[in-house]
Design brief:
Bound molecules: iron/sulfur cluster
Strand order of the largest sheet: 2-1-5-8
Structural class: alpha/beta
Radius of gyration: 16 Å
Oligomer: single chain
Shape: globular
Distance between the termini: 20 Å
């Protein structure tokens, strides 16, 4: 069974977010993948050495800077490398990561002003995963992930692509 790399805050087993909370994903498809033991949770910020709770941070160009002005780019990069290692080890089908995060955001991130402004962009971990060819989606794109999961299983079971998919 193909695995899916997921943000640990979406997986919900540990309070890894900067505010000491989780963002447990309750979508029935996500719960089913969890019950199937398909999900591989990672938290790049904690894996990179940052504590819980921690000061929030945003991307500014290639750097990640905390609200109080500390450069945490090194920790973010280390966490991204650990996530990539895990993705490659497990030969994941794709990743489902938390939107808007400076690590895990895949379509939108905050603009670095700490005023709540979102811009098109991606987090440090997502950038590294995509550069290595891993497909990354957000928790708002589970339809696409479900298509990949069911399409893939269908190919494995029947040797044919799922109906309507090439
Ligand atoms: Fe969640 Fe990713 Fe932030 Fe960890 S780094 S708390 S997994 S969004």
């Amino acid at each position: 069974m193909k695995k899916i790399l997921v943000s640990q805050c979406l997986y919900g087993d540990k309070p890894v977010r900067y505010d000491g909370k989780t963002k447990e994903e309750r979508d029935p498809r996500f719960i089913r993948w969890k019950e199937e033991n398909r999900l591989i949770p990672v938290c790049p910020e904690v894996d990179g050495g940052l504590p819980v709770p921690r000061t929030d941070a945003q991307r500014i160009g290639d750097q990640v800077i905390t609200r109080d002005g500390r450069d945490v780019t090194k920790e973010y990069r280390r966490g991204a490398e650990i996530a990539l290692e895990r993705a490659l080890q497990e030969e994941v089908l794709c990743a489902v990561l938390k939107e808007k995060s400076p690590s895990c955001g895949s379509n939108k991130v905050y603009d670095g002003t700490f005023e709540g402004n979102l811009i098109d962009g991606q987090g440090i971990t997502v950038q590294l995963l995509r550069e290595a060819g891993v497909r990354v989606y957000s928790e708002e794109e589970l339809d696409l992930v479900e298509q990949m999961v069911t399409g893939r299983e269908n190919i494995i079971l029947t040797g044919m692509p799922a109906c309507g998919k090439s």
